[in-house]
Design brief:
Layout (H helix, E strand, L loop, with lengths): L13 E3 L5 E3 L7 E6 L6 H12 L1 H6 L2 E7 L3 H11 L5 E3 L4 H5 L3 E6 L2 E6 L2 E5 L5 E6 L6 H12 L1
Parallel strand pairs: 3-4, 4-5
Antiparallel strand pairs: 1-2, 3-8, 6-7, 8-9
């Protein structure tokens, strides 16, 4: 699959969230979406990112955005993560890796001298028509909301 670029249509998906509810990108047509992909529930960087989005959720909602988190963890892991950190947005389970494949985010990673396969942390800002207007590669997990709001100003 070709690498996604700003201006291209966001690939459609349908999966389940931490509550076992069906969720698809089409459910958010007409809304601005922050679709953020992260490697693993309850790890330091992923927790910092999720909590930064949680702590700024009201400001994000005021700007008209809906947040959706995606990782390859299962529904049970997502539910535990959501409950532990009181996350107010859906966490999509992509345990079959279909969504990360569509977004070209599954690949080789290196950490502490070890090579392994995993999800590349990336955030897509999607407009009301379903078009990717900004891609934030390697987001700053502790300041992700600021990055998102600044990036959105650039595209407007």
């Amino acid at each position: 699959m070709a690498v996604l670029k700003e201006g291209s249509k966001a690939p459609a998906f349908k999966a389940v969230d931490q509550n076992g509810e069906s969720i698809s990108l089409a459910d958010f047509k007409g809304k601005k979406v922050i679709l953020y992909f992260y490697p693993k529930d309850d790890t330091p960087g992923c927790t910092a990112q999720a909590c930064n989005l949680r702590d700024n959720n009201s400001a994000i909602i005021k700007k008209g955005f809906q947040i959706i988190g995606v990782s390859t963890d299962d529904v049970k892991s997502h539910k535990k993560f959501e409950t532990k950190y009181e996350l107010p947005f859906p966490l999509v389970s992509d345990s079959d890796k279909k969504i990360v494949d569509k977004y070209n985010l599954w690949g080789e990673k290196k950490f502490m001298g070890r090579t392994y396969m995993g999800t590349t942390r990336t955030t897509f800002l999607i407009d009301e028509t379903g078009k990717i207007v900004k891609i934030i590669a390697k987001p700053d997990t502790a300041n992700h909301t600021e990055e998102i709001l600044e990036a959105w100003k650039e595209v407007k």
